[in-house]
Specification:
Number of helices: 20
CATH class of the largest domain: Alpha Beta
Strand content: 15-25%
Structural class: alpha/beta
Strand order of the largest sheet: 2-1-7-5-6
Bound molecules: iron/sulfur cluster
Shape: globular
Helix content: 25-40%
CATH topology of the largest domain: Rossmann fold
Largest sheet: 5 strands, mixed
Number of strands: 22
Radius of gyration: 25 Å
Length: 592
């Protein structure tokens, strides 16, 4: 590999040719401030538009300051990153950005976690010259079921555009207008709701300001908690326990499962359950579907559609409904764990309590913003009563716990309630890319072969590579498995399915890079992909510690089928736990 040697702040460094100054400086431990640059190297995601101009530095022999995120290192270069001239330039740029920014920091949803505010503090800005000339705060807000866009807070860093278009290939956001009215918005400046947005929330996860935030369901949850006529039940998704601690000062990858349960009880939830239970249920239903299609396929039945595609990620469901509606009979019809949980809570569990479903409120704690939209889909309600009433993100839960003055660190671990709180390790790993299909393989193998699995850790299905594949031997029958995380990667596998080239029997897709651990509702990773890796490791740790590691071994799941559902994928199970998909393109065209 060809390398170049250069000097940055009087230190010599040798880097591969083509490396940017920003990256080379990082190797020397020099942190050059930036608002637009983002490098999630483990996920192969980089945003370097050279747009904010905060990261400028002096390069010896050049008249103009150079943006370090887009300037490549050259042999013999001498770079100074913090001279008086550089500091002055950064301050001036920052003052320009702030002069056109709303001043509602006290009530901004990003308050306390805003990169723009931190940068202003870091650069020592104490006043903003020229405000009186700026066309500010024209109240350009766009509310969708999951995401709020506040166009006045857009600083054109274009991180959201990179995530939406380059990484996810969703194409919902791009730069519009110029000058003070410039912003990143859907085509023709329409609302997100009527764009191709999948609500994966990756734009929110990387936005450095309050321009993209989530719809807040906490006030509605608070109202339900104080209503004496309501029984409020909460479910927590697997990825939440691996990230919530970060908001309270724990190292990334610290599991806070027991403390989270204790905090939810302290907040007033009557029953604290685990979405992992519903993940086990999903595996029974999805695994049954896989084996049914596989058996029919092996018998020569041409109507058996393979590969089966997982369907537990609503961002992914929105994506194929939008871009691959012709393939809508290919994915599994199993509902997501969030929705399976809601359907069971408001039937089976409401019956146990002897209450009407209208008197039960189901809240989900999710790493995900698409879940907010999913729980509002009309097909997931009965007589206008949704199976899941409200969905709050990991970040919202953290804020809620802090508002209630609960000190998470001093809480003693508590256990989930029964019966919807018991889960296997297979349910836990749903939260990371590859986990859903690994969980399905653990069950499908034993059901298909009638033999006990000696090895439950399928490490060949794990990792962070965007597209992965493996062949698992089902006692002489090779099962080809594909995995994609990030919708751009999923698109590649779907194109093969559409053209009939796909050799897979089953494909797992998660919309967010890394899976739900990297979801749009998780604590902000601020461009550090190590955090995503630590969260994944935490879930595999919890899986290993579980006494049961296969979904079909969960005794509460067995009981649920015996007492209530009947057969997997039987009439009742199908009615409650399965769904159907739409051609979203048509819906969007009608709305336009
Ligand atoms: Fe939501 Fe997880 Fe899908 Fe992301 S990967 S959209 S967090 S379900």
């Amino acid at each position: 590999m060809e390398t170049v040697k250069l000097i940055i702040d009087n230190k010599e460094v040798e880097v591969p040719k083509g490396t940017t100054i920003q990256k080379a400086a990082k190797l020397l431990g020099i942190d050059i401030p930036t608002l637009c640059y983002m490098d999630l190297h483990d996920l192969n995601i980089e945003n370097k538009p050279g747009g904010c101009r905060i990261c400028v530095a002096e390069v010896k022999g050049r008249r103009n300051l150079a943006p370090t995120c887009s300037t490549r290192c050259e042999e013999g270069m001498v770079v100074s990153t913090h001279t008086v001239r550089v500091l002055n330039a950064r301050r001036t740029v920052m003052e320009f950005i702030l002069s056109d920014h709303p001043k509602d920091c006290l009530v901004c949803p990003k308050s306390g976690n805003c990169e723009l505010q931190s940068m202003a503090h870091r650069l020592g800005i104490r006043e903003i010259p020229g405000q009186e000339y700026a066309a500010m705060s024209t109240y350009r807000k766009d509310f969708s079921p999951s995401i709020i866009r506040d166009l006045d807070k857009c600083i054109m860093c274009r991180r959201c555009e990179t995530m939406c278009n380059t990484v996810q290939t969703v194409g919902a956001l791009s730069a519009v207008n110029r000058g003070f009215m410039a912003a990143v918005a859907p085509a023709f400046e329409q609302n997100l709701e009527f764009s191709t947005c999948t609500y994966c929330g990756q734009c929110v996860a990387v936005c450095p300001t309050g321009a993209l935030t989530e719809i807040n369901h906490v006030p509605s949850v608070l109202r339900a908690l104080v209503d004496p006529t309501k029984t409020v039940v909460v479910q927590t998704a697997p990825a939440v326990r691996a990230a919530l601690g970060e908001e309270f000062g724990y190292e990334p990858g610290t599991l806070v499962t027991g403390k989270m349960v204790a905090a939810l009880r302290a907040l007033g939830f009557k029953y604290v359950f685990d979405t992992d239970f519903a993940a086990d249920l999903t595996i029974i239903e999805e695994g049954t579907e896989l084996l049914d299609r596989l058996t029919r396929h092996l018998k020569g039945d041409k109507t058996a559609r393979l590969p089966i595609l997982t369907s537990c990620c609503p961002g992914w469901v929105n994506f194929f409904e939008e871009y691959f509606p012709d393939l809508k009979d290919v994915p599994s019809t199993s509902k997501s764990p969030q929705q399976m949980f809601g359907a069971i809570a408001k039937t089976y569990f409401a019956d146990i309590l002897g209450i009407n479903r209208k008197d039960m409120v189901v809240v989900s704690i999710m790493p995900c913003l698409a879940k907010k939209y999913e729980c509002q889909r009309p097909e997931f309600s009965v007589d206008n009563n949704p199976d899941v009433d409200f969905s709050i993100s990991t970040r919202e839960l953290a804020a809620f716990i802090k508002q209630a003055n609960i000190d998470l660190k001093t809480l003693k671990d508590e256990e989930f309630d029964a019966p919807l709180g018991e889960s296997s390790g297979a349910g836990v790993i749903f939260g990371t890319t590859g986990g859903v299909i690994e969980a399905a393989v653990r069950t499908a193998y034993e059901v298909h072969t009638g033999k006990k699995l000696e090895r439950v850790d399928f490490t060949e299905l794990r990792g962070l590579e965007g597209v992965r594949s493996a062949t698992i031997d089902f006692n002489g029958l090779p099962i080809n498995i594909g995995i994609a995380h990030g919708l751009g990667n999923a698109r590649k596998l779907l194109d093969d399915v559409r053209s009939g080239k796909s050799q897979f029997h089953a494909i797992e897709v998660m919309a967010c890079p890394g899976g739900c651990i990297g979801g749009g509702g998780q604590p902000l990773h601020h461009g550090n992909s190590e955090i995503i890796k630590e969260r994944a490791a935490a879930l595999y740790r919890e899986d290993r510690q579980k006494p049961l590691r296969k979904s079909h071994d969960n005794p509460f799941i067995k009981k649920l089928y015996e007492e209530f559902l009947g057969k997997p994928n039987g009439e009742k199970a199908h009615h409650l736990l399965h769904t159907h998909y739409f051609d979203k393109k048509k819906k969007i065209m009608i709305k336009q």
